[in-house]
Amino acid sequence: MYGTIARMRIKPGKIDEMQRLAEQEAEEIPGILFQYVYQMDADENEHMLVVGFESREAYRANAESPEMHQRYLRYRELLDAEPEWHDGEIAFAVTSAGAMT
């Protein structure tokens, strides 16, 4: 698995719109496995986005696609600033049902 973590500042009052947009568009993204968005306790407008793909290739194909660029422009309208991105291989995941590989 491969993915990204993004630190982002969602504009005040826009979290519900961000969620609707993410839910609508997730089905259009080949290879995506999950998206989690954390709202930080210290600042309700600061969020961490965690996205997982089935492979680095699926992630790169999405990141480089014109469709992703259009999605990003819609997301960007809901943010105060450019996100801070951190890409990488997902080393492991653990759920209450046990380890996922």
Show the helix and strand layout.
Elements (H helix, E strand, L loop, with lengths): L1 E8 L5 H12 L5 E8 L6 E8 L2 H8 L2 H11 L7 E6 L3 E3 L2 E3 L1
Antiparallel strand pairs: 1-3, 1-4, 2-3, 5-6
Describe this protein's structure.
By secondary structure, the protein is of the alpha+beta class. The protein has a single domain (2-100), classed as Alpha-Beta Plaits (2-Layer Sandwich). The protein is built from three helices and six strands; from the N terminus they run βαββααβββ. The strands form two sheets. Strands 2-3-1-4 form a four-stranded antiparallel β-sheet. It has a two-stranded antiparallel ribbon with strand order 5-6. The longest helix is centred in the N-terminal third of the chain and has 12 residues, at 15-26. The relative contact order is 0.28. The model has no long low-confidence stretch (mean pLDDT 93).
Our Rg estimate from Cα atoms comes to 14 Å
Spatial arrangement of strands, main beta sheet? 2-3-1-4
Helix proportion range = 25-40%
Enumerate the spans where pLDDT stays under 50 for 5 or more consecutive residues: none
Mean pLDDT: 93
Number of helices: 3
CATH top level? Answer: Alpha Beta
In the CATH scheme, what's the topology name?
Answer: Alpha-Beta Plaits
Instruction: Estimate the strand proportion.
Output: 35-45%
